[in-house]
Amino acid sequence: MLHPRRLKQDLANTVAALKTRNYHLDTERFAALERRQRTQQSETEALQAERNRASKAIGMAKAKQQDPQELLATVASLGGKLKTSQAEFAALRAEFQRLLDDIPNVPQASVPVGKDETDNQEIRRSGNPRQFSFTALDHVELGKRLAMMDYETAANLAGARFVVLHGALARLHRALAQFMLDLHIREHHYQEVSVPVLVNPSTLYATGQLPKFADDQFATQDEPPYYLTPTAEVPLTNLVAGRIIEPSQLPIQKVAHTLCFRREAGSYGKDTRGMIRQHQFEKVELVHIVAPQQSAAALEMLTAHAEAVLQKLELPYRVLSLCTGDLGFAAAKTYDLETWIPSQQRYREISSCSNCEDFQARRMKARWRDPNQSKPQLLHTLNGSGVAVGRALVAVMENYQNADGSIRVPNVLVPYMDGCAKISA
After folding, report:
1. How many angstroms separate the CA atoms of 420 and 61, rounded?
2. In this structure, what is the dihedral angle of CA atoms 412, 414, 418, 424, given to the nearest 10 degrees?
3. What is the pLDDT of residue 78?
4. CA-CA distance, 266 to 414, in Å (whole number)?
5. Which residues contact 199 (CB under 8 A, 6 or more apart)?
């Protein structure tokens, strides 16, 4: 959430920056709501003061043995007016808050300006796409020939956009997650965390998934509902919600491997084949909680940690700086990692690493004791996939396939497969 003071004091520049994100801020509505809220607050405070004076006068009248009936009637009348004024003020505050909740983060100056994903800027590439001496199959056909990837049974069990993995392919999927966790814990020094996959509405609100993306969430019928987490970013970032962190505790680096759930409400007709876009998937998620002056460097570090996964798997990939029009709601700057998918002859996203600055911290009231400030200051939060497990499985299957439909296991995963170096039917 943006600070209202920023909108008041630097409205023109903020509106211009948001426009590059394809977001139109209704400045007239903002100004009118802010003005009406101020006026209503003044009226409410005046009524409160007037009632307090009248109540005090009642006490003085009683002390002098005077009849307080007229004053009692005045207090009762003021009480009714005050209640009405307070309700109007609360309604205006709620409407103003809804407007603030809808505004995305402001892009950093270094973010390339653009309308959509076609304007994203490639930063670097690593590795070269494999040249096959045979016709490369996609992961769906490979899984079918191995008899280890079953979409039909998954559809009977749950519906579309689910899969059942069997045997060595299921083990390879597990091996990928275990390898990623070990890498980030042992070499990158993250602390592993086991978190709930059911969270409450305030937890989703804090990281920006609610109310903006309510349609993409799976929710229970409880009141209030529980939500299935769309990413471990949600519970991991909220570990500091409502807290004041000491400087000695920073930076904080957390990692978790969880199931993730998304309705994919806005992706009708996209990636309906295979494991690229599913309702249930797994990710190894990385979260950094840092002091503001550390966040720029933390984004580069976070991205490098995600890249290390692809480097050790020896998968070709590229890094993109997302343009203003393609940024996520809470992000001020994002790098996407895309790995080569032979069957599609294109790079596909496998990780997204974002610096949210103080946007999420303001929502969750996460602060730290800055030794140079008299009051606690907002933290900066960052998150990134390290990486998406299902998409990593797709990339390994397609890039490591053999002409007979078998799949060579990447060297770094062989120990996790109990020495198995090849998956065959």
Report:
1. 93
2. 150
3. 87
4. 38
5. 226, 227, 229, 234, 235, 238
Q: Are residues 199 and 256 in contact, defined by beta-carbon separation less than 8 angstroms?
A: no
- For residue 4, say if its preceding peptide bond is cis, omega within 30 degrees of 0: no
Around Cβ 336, how many Cβ atoms within 10 Å?
Answer: 25
Rounded Cα–Cα distance for residues 363 and 30 (Å): 19
What is the reported pLDDT for 188? 98
Strand extents, DSSP E, 302-408: 317-321, 333-341, 346-355, 367-368, 377-378, 380-388, 407-408
For the segment 96-136, what is each residue's pLDDT rounded down to a tens digit?
999 999 999 999 999 999 999 999 999 999 999 999 999 99
Q: Among 248, 246, 247, 254, which Cα is nearest to 287's?
A: 254
* C-alpha closest to that of 79 among 50, 56, 38: 50
Q: Tell me if 178 sits within 8 A of 415, measured CB to CB.
A: no
| One-letter amino acid for residue 5 of the chain | R
Do residues 420 and 414 lie in contact, with contact meaning Cβ atoms separated by under 8 Å? Answer: yes
> Which one, of 366, 114, 72, 394, lies nearest residue 243 by Cα?
366
To which H or E segment does residue 212 belong? none
Q: What is the DSSP letter of 185?
A: I
Active-site residue set:
262, 277, 349, 352, 391
Residues 6 or more apart whose CB falls under 8 angstroms from that of 17 comprise 106, 107, 324
What is the SS3 assignment for 338? strand
**The overall pTM is greater than 0.85:** yes
User: What are 8's two structure tokens?
Assistant: 């008041």
CA–CA gap between residue 407 and residue 143 (Å, rounded): 10
* Phi, psi for 31 (deg, rounded to 5): -65, -40
User: How far, in whole angstroms, is CA 309 from its chain's centroid?
Assistant: 21
What pLDDT does 59 receive?
A: 77
List of the chain residues with pLDDT < 50: none
What is the per-residue pLDDT for 163?
A: 97
| CA–CA dist 375, 371 (Å, integer) | 9
Nearest C-alpha neighbor of 360 from the set 133, 145, 204: 204
Helical pair 389-399 and 167-182, crossing angle rounded to 10 deg: 120
Tokens of 189: 């020094």
CA distance 138 to 272: 13
